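Figure S4 source data
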Amino acid sequence: MQWQENNKSMQTLKNALLSISSTEHGAELTSIVKDGREYLWQADPAFWKRHSPVLFPIVGSVWNGRFRIDGKEYAMGQHGFARDRDFSLIEQSENKLKYRLESDSKSLEIYPYPFRLDISYHLRDNQIDVIWEVENIGSSTLYFQIGAHPAFNYFDFDPRQNRRGYFSFDRSEGLECIRIVDKGCADPSSRYPLKTDSAGLLPIYADSFDETDAFILQDSQVKKVTLHDPNGVAKLSLDFDAPLVGLWSPPHKNAPFVCIEPWFGRCDRAGYEGEFKNRDWVNELAPSQRFKASYTITIF
C-alpha cells in the first residue's frame, strides 16, 4: 500500500545504480530503488504511515506533550511539526534536490523561534547524502533538535520466521543503550548492554522491540550502522556524525521494516519539566548562525 503524499508532487533522481524519490510534504524521502528492488518502507498505515520523516524542532517526545520557554508553556506532539508541513523545492539538478521550510505565524504560535530549515538529497553512485541546514533568522538564541527516521524493508521478510536480520556497527564491544520508559520519554540513568556475536552482528528478532520500543545509543558510541539480511549479508548502511542513533520497529506488530535514526537530540528524560533550552541534547544557534549536518545512506 502506498501512502498518499497530500497531493504534493514527487521529485525523482536517477543514476546508473539508484533511483530515489522525495516529496515537498515534509521534504520526505519516499523511495530508494536498486535493481528493481525497493529498499525504503512504503508507508502502509497498518504498520506506520511514513517513509523517512525529518524530526524537527524536537526528537522524540516532550514530557506530557508540554515544554516551557521563558516560563511559558507550549504543546507539541512527538518528533515536532516539520514532517507534516509543506516545504518549498528551491533547487533541483541532475543529482540534487533541496527543500526549504521557514517559520511562519502558525509555527511561532507553538514554537516561538524564527528559523529556516533546508533539507537536501544528493545522489552519488550507490549513495544518498542527506543534508540538514538550520539557520537562526531571529534576534535571540535558537534552541532546537533535529533527527532522521528512515525506515528500511527487511530483506527476505517472512512473518513466520523469528529472525529478521542483523545490525552491525563500526564498534562491536562495550556498546550500551538507554530505553523509553514512560510516555515516550527515556531513563538515561539506566544503561543496557548491546551484545554482538563473534562476527560483530547484533541479531534482530520479531520481538526485539516489544519490550523497549527503541534502542537509543548516545554519546557518539557509533558513527555507522549496517543492516544485514537473515544470512548475515550486508545490504545497506548509514554513516553519520550525529551523537545519537535510534533503532526502532513498531512493537507488537511483526512489522516488515526497521528504522536507523541518526539524531542531534533525544526525547525528554521521564519527568522533565524544566526549560526547553535545558533539555538533554538540545542544540543552540546565535542569531544569523547556521547549523549543518548530514548522513549518508549506502546501498550495497
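Figure S5 source data
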Amino acid sequence: MFSCSLSLDSGLKTRHKMNTKDIIIIGGGPTGLNCAIAAKEQGLDYLVLEKGVLVNSIYQFPTNMTFFSTSNLLEIGNIPFIAHGDKPTRKEALEYYRRIQQSWDIKVNLYETVEKMQPAPNGIYSIQTNKTTYHTRAVVVATGFYDTPRLLNVPGEELPKVKHYYDDPHPYIGQELLVIGAANSACDVALEAYYKGAKVTMAIREHEIYPKVKYWIRPNIENRIKEGSIKAYFNTIVKEIRKDEVTLQGPQGVFTIKNDFVLAMTGYKPDYSLLVSLGVPIAEDEEKKPIHNPTTLETALPNVYVAGVLCAGMRTNKLFIENTRDHGEIIIQDIIKKQRQAAA
C-alpha cells in the first residue's frame, strides 16, 4: 500500500515536469463519459483512454438491438436522449453518445489500450498504454464487461463458425444455427434468427428458459419451442464443436446434431486481466468484485476507483447504465474532498 496526495497546488511543479493529469479514466463508454463530464465540471485535468471505438460495448451490440431501458434512463450530461420509440435502438444510442462527446468536448483517446499501471514517486501513478506513458494522481476504471465473453472452454470453440457476439441475422438464413444459452440475449437471438429464416436449435444448461427473461420475450420463445419451430434441448451442454456438427450431452447421453454456425450467448464478464495489470485487488468469491468502498467507489489502491457495471463483478445483471449514472459525481466529489483536505 502507498498513499498519494491529490493537492493540485502541491503538485503543480510535478505536473509541469511530467505532464501529470488529475485523473485518467479507462473506458470510453457511457460511464467513462459521465465521469469525464463530472471531472470537467470541477475543472480537473482529465483524459479518457478507450481501447476501441467510442462506447465500444454498445457498438458491439446486435445491429437491430433495442434497449430494455427507456431513453430518459440512459441520459447523461443533462442532454436529452430523443428516440423514435419508447426504447431506443443501438443506432440511436451510438448517435446520442457521439453527441454527448461532441457537446461536452470530452477528451478521448480512441484505439489506445492500457497495458499496465505502476506507482511513481510522490504518490503519482504511471499508466503505460500501447502508445505512450501517462502520469496521473487518480484513476477511474470504467471498462464494463461486454468486451470479455464467458467462454465454453470446449474443443472447436476457436472455429470461425463460432461467435460470442451476435451481429445480424442475415448470415444465418437457411443455415443450421445453434444458440447456446437461455437468458434475454439468447432468446432474442433465437427468435430473430428464426423469423429471418434460420433453422434454430437451442442448447440450454437448465431445465427451463431463464425465469427473468423479459416479459415480452418469454411467451414468444416458449411458444416457438412448444410448437417445434425452434428445437430446444434442456439440461444440455456442449461437448465439442466441429466443422459440420456439434456434439451435445443431455439427460439421455451424448448425441450429435448438424450445424453450420454456433452463437454462444453465454454472457460476459469484466476484463480481469486488465484489473490484474493495474494491480486492483479482486474479491476471492463467486462475485469476484473489484474490492472497493461502496460509498466512494475507491478500490484498495489509494485514489484508484471503479465505476459503472464493473463494480458488480460477475453479477453482470445487477448494474446497468441507468443505476450507475451517479458514479461519476460520487468519484469526483471524493477527489475534490481529498484536495481540500490536503490543502487545509
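The first strand starts at residue 23 and ends at 26. The chain has eight helices and 16 strands.
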